[in-house]
Amino acid sequence: MESLTDDVLIRILSYLDIKSQQIMLNLHPRFFNLMPIVWISQYKKVKMSLFEAKFSIDDLRYFFQSISKTVQVMHLRMMSAEQYMVLLEFIFPKVYDFRFATVPSRLLSDSDIPKLIMTFPNLKEFSPQGSFSGRYFTDFPLLERLTLTYCQHFSVENLANVMKTHWLISSLLKWKLMSCRGLKTTWKHLIALTS
User: Fold this and answer.
1) How far are the Cα atoms of 28, 37, 38 from residue 1, in angstroms, in the given order?
2) Would the CA dihedral through 88, 82, 127, 55 be positive or negative?
3) Residue 193: which residues within 8 A CB-CB, separation 6 or more?
């Protein structure tokens, strides 16, 4: 291994899946030092289940730290409270699209939005999961697309405020347990609030 150049080792490490890359982190200091280069080149878009990736908290912190300045899209599933707190330790200035699912889904609420805005200052597409009412969603400076499929507490008034503040290119809205009649009433209310 000592005879292999960094370029060759980086190429070899890039062929491994994320679980194998994590194993390699702890095998030799050279792998540990080269892995951020591999991750930066591989992960402009991160679409993964953290449950399946089985990151230790320290490895997850190292992963987020490595890609924080270059990643553009983050779709994370099965985030625990501890994993979520690690995410908030970093700023991801290039991320424009962020989606996440937490366990349990009610883990996050309106009070988390200011922290997410600091973590993702240039967010344009947002698909949150949690007990959000939409109270602070007007504070996202660049928001263009909003998917509310998993935000069952999002209020019509707050959505109207978001739509007044931002020209949303498209909003994918789905409130649980809403009848067709209720949907029609909601849209009438929304149109009245935004006009």
Assistant:
1) 10, 18, 17
2) positive
3) 156, 157, 160, 164
Closest CA to 81 of 58, 107, 61: 107
Query: What is the maximal distance between C-alpha atoms in the chain?
Result: 71
Model's pTM, two decimal places?
Answer: 0.83
Angle between helix 6-14 and 29-42 (nearest 10): 60
pLDDT in tens, 42-71: 999 999 998 888 899 999 999 999 999 999
User: Domain extents for the chain?
Assistant: 1-42, 43-194
DSSP bridge pairs for 150: 129
Q: Does domain 43-194 have CATH number 3.80.10.10?
A: yes
Q: Which residues contact 5 (CB under 8 A, 6 or more apart)?
A: none
Which are the contacts of 20, defined by CB distance < 8 A and separation ≥ 6? none
- Please, which contacts does 139-143 make with residues 24 or more away whose CB atoms are closer than 8 Å? 139/113, 139/114, 140/166, 141/117, 142/96, 143/168
Q: What is the dihedral of CA 88, 89, 91, 92, to 10 degrees?
A: -70
User: How many other C-beta atoms can be found within 10 angstroms of the C-beta atom of residue 153?
Assistant: 15
* 50 within 8 A of 74, measured Cβ to Cβ: no
- Element containing residue 83 per DSSP (H, E): helix 81-87
The average pLDDT across 69-90 equals 92
Where does the chain show beta strands of DSSP type E?
45-49, 73-79, 97-102, 125-127, 145-147, 170-172
